Structure formats: C-alpha cells, structure tokens
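Hi team, as promised in this morning's meeting, here are the two structures we talked about. I've kept the exact order from the run log so nobody has to guess. The first one is mostly here for context; it's the second one we should focus on when we meet again. Sequence first, then the predicted structure tokens.
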Amino acid sequence: MSDVIGHYIGGRQVAGTSGRRGDIYNPALGEVVRQVDFASQAEVRQAVEAAKAAQPDWAAQPPLRRARVMFRLKQLLEANMDDLAKVVTEEHGKTIADAKGSITRGLEVVEFACGIPHLLKGEFSEDVGTGVDSFSMRQPLGVVAGITPFNFPAMIPLWMAPMALACGNAFILKPSEKDPSFSLRLAEFFAEAGVPDGVFSVVQGDKEAVNAILTDPDIQAVSFVGATATAEYIYHTGCAHNKRVQALGGAKNHMIVMPDADMEQATDAIMGAAYGSAGERCMAISVAVAVGDEVADNLLERLMPRVRGLKIGPGSDPEVEMGPLNNRQLFDKVNGLIDQGVKEGADLVLDGRGLSLQGYEKGYFMGGSIFDRVTPEMEIYKQEIFGPVLSVVRAPDYASAARMVNEHEYGNGTAIFTRDGDAARHFASTSKIGMVGVNVPIPVPMAFHSFGGWKRSLFGDHHMHGPEGVRFFTKLKTVTARWPTGIRAGAEFTIPTHG
C-alpha cells in the first residue's frame, strides 16, 4: 500500500496538489503508518467536472446493465473480503471479524442495488381522462456526493455509492481522513466491475473538501453520516445551496430490561452492543435502563465479570474481542467523560482507564467501563460517549423507562428486552425513535428496509438504503399522454433485449 493516499478522479488515482496532508495512524500502535492528501476546492471541482461529463451516458444505460455492474461488484468484494478486512482493521482498529461483518452489511446493500430494474419501476394509470393515460418514473439527480465517518470506512460508503450509481447518478466520495485506504480499493473494484471513468470519484480531505462539496453548484445531493453537530452543519449548509441532504448524526441508544426479561439473553446482548467495536457505533447500546433495583443488581452481577474478562488487544489478533479506540482525540474525550461522570456522582463500578498492553503501550486501548445509578441530568447520560462505557439507569417502572427514551434529544435506536408482548408492542408503537428492537439489541434494518433515526439523529427527510435510498437518489417525474388515433407502428417479431 502506498505511503501516501491520494484521490481517484477520472478513472485513475491521482496525487494531491494542494500541498496539505494528514497523518493516518495504526490505533493499536499509536503510530503513523501513512499519510493522506487533502483536496483543495479546485481538486473537488475536477472530480465534479469528470462526473458531469460521464453521468449522462451512465444514466442512459438501461437499469438492467447498471444492475449487472452491481453483480460484478458484489463478486469482487466477496473475493477480496479477507484483504479488505485487514485494510479496515489496520487503520480503524476494530477486530478482523467485526471488519468482515461491516463489509458484509455493505454487501447486502450492493445485493439490494442489483434489483434496481424493479426498484425504479413507476406507476401507470389508464384512462385518467378520455383517451388519456398517466404514468410516473424515477430519474437520477445527476452528480451526488457522500461524506462518510471513520467508524465504518467500508460499510457506509457501500450504503451510499451503490444505491446512487444504480439509480444512474455519478457519485463523489469524501471518506474520513482517519482511515481512507478502503476508498481507493472500492474505486478500483467499481472500475473493474464496469463503472465508466468519472462516474465514481474519491476526494480525500478535511473541512475544506467538505465545504467545496456543500457549495458546488453542480452537486445535487449530499449524504452524510457523522457527529450531530457536523450533521446539522452539513444539512443547513447544503440546503442553503439548494441541495437535497440526508445527514445522519449521533445517538444515545437505550436498552430497557424488564423484570421478566431473559437475563442471560439481555446480558449477552449488552456485551456485544455496548463493547463491540469499542463502542464506536452509532447504534451501540450505551444506556441500560433496568426496571427495578432487583433487575439492575442482577444485571450488574452478570455483566461485571464478563466486562472484566474482555479479551482486548490489536484487532488483527483473531482471539481479541475488542480493539483500541480509533484515535487519540477520541481516547482523550472518553477518558474525560469518565472523569466527568465520577464528578457528577455516578457510581463507577468498573473503571477501564489506564489499560496498558505489552508491545502496544502507545495504542489507544481502554478496558470496558460501567457506571451505575446514572441519572438524566448527568453529562454522561446526555452526551454520546462513543467508547466502551455503559451507563446503567434505574427506573421504578416501565412507564418511567419509556419516558426516558422518548425525552432524550437523540432518537436513533432503542431496544426492549421482555417476554411481555403487550409491553413490547406498546414500546415499539410509542417510541419516538427511528429503529426499535424487541429482544434485539442493535436493530439495524436489513438492506431492503431503510436505516435512520428521529429527532437530532437525522437531519433531512430520507433514511438510508432500501426504498428510502432509491427515493433520495432519484426525482419523480409524472407524464400524462394522449395519442392521436389511427397511427400504427409496425410489428416486431423478435424478443427485445438489452444485449
């Protein structure tokens, strides 16, 4: 792999010309492994010009042909899964198994995009008036862009780009500068699968590249995933420049544990959902709401030894369950929030700070932490910690627990663990949350449904992938037609094909 990660514009990798670069770290070592070029506004504009030139011919391709490109992309990703997972692990830090899992969830969106001929079908009404028919169609927007986060360097680009391209758009990806190498591999696979030069581009960079995307007059839509403050900025800035925007932000996901819950199942669920990927997931469970002191005590009794026993180390080790945090800034933030929780009076029953691993002393490693008796007034309850920290909140009854979920400013995901169908149905129906799990801790929808939260977890009207993804990356056109009578077209006797 190159020592410097550049851009991908016009069907080839190109070195940056802005003179600005950033360091890429291996978070297990805490050391720089390579650098990444940061794009200027002019370089973003080069990608836009290439996309503008290539998009009309790509959009003119029958959807069936674009679907066949997606089939080939799927095969390439599957064939290179092991190597791609290593790329993700080296720059992000998550375990190889978790990296493969994230790529697989991206692959499922590619599989969904393979059905684009069906997904783009419109509606038809005969005789809306005498001799008048009406029909609708969905057509591409043109040039669109995606800005993706460090925590899923493979999955989120695969949630965006295949849907955009299958719909007939040209797509410009701005990946996180912290783990950008997967983006260039993806560009190579798109090209090998049959995407024409210019239809898929990658511009690396920081806020300068982001602002260039948000203000460019030829970019019609922007899809974003990241922190809430940035999501709000992306949404308002993009909309102010007449763009369609979907901006997915942060989360504070609660899991209610009812007195009748299967406690072994609930414990297993929390372990994976709170500490998987070191808590660096927007769908991580960071708050366990125990209904009753007995449930809280039982839950903690089961959790404490398992969190202490987490196998922590470099993600490349197949025996490891939790790798390091991705970067020093996040590491310091999580440590600071643990300090804040102690000051605020929460009971730190398990402290994961101060972990040092032989041979990896500079790595951004933390053990799992647990706070008990957290209350809604505390910053550790309000803020998205984005690390391996679980807050246990004690609620006197179901109504109080459900109210906590609904009153929080975030509304990404939530879950309830119970055997009571009535409670589960009520919770699913009344939660002001975009994705709800019943005895499922991380209710991320499959690719043929759509992903997205409510409240300050999503800015914009469309969720990601699934039917909502098709709607986001297309515009609706309705045609009303009347034809003169007596005109006949000649008969065709061969089966029409797109061969």
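And here is the second protein, the one for discussion:
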Amino acid sequence: MTQILANYTASISELKKSPSTIIEEAGNEAVAILNHNKPSAYLVPSSLYEKMMDIIDDYYLAQKVRERLDYDEKDLVEVSLEDL
C-alpha cells in the first residue's frame, strides 16, 4: 500500500472541477492528488514550498560546513597578517 504524505486528499477530477476550493479547504497544508486512489502528485501552497526550500538550503549549507570543519592539522597553512 502506498503511503499518503498529506492530511488532505483530492482526486484529479476534483482538482479539475475546482482547484481553488481544494487549496482553500487545505489552508496552508499540502494536498495529495490521487489517481485511482494512489498519490500521483502533491499540491503544495507557495508558503509551504518556500519553507521546504529554506530547510533544504540549510541542510546543504550544514553539509558544506561539516565538510570544511573535517580537516587534518597537517593540511593547515600558517599565514602572517602581513601576507593578507
């Protein structure tokens, strides 16, 4: 059985009839769009999508920080302030 990752669902037929009603009823949450009772897409409000993108950006930034903090002492290069 396929897991539905949303509190709200709508069929493709319902979406075709009245997309604005579905968006309004879901409020600020995602809607699983079902095709033959299986999720075929998710309708995500713009504010939620922006939050998701911020979380993903933060995750990749944290990965980059972890990579840069993982160094060996032998790889360090000593530089004087005059050289900068």
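Starting points for discussion:
Residues 59 and 70 are 17 Å apart (CA to CA).
The beta strands are 8-11, 31-35, 38-43.
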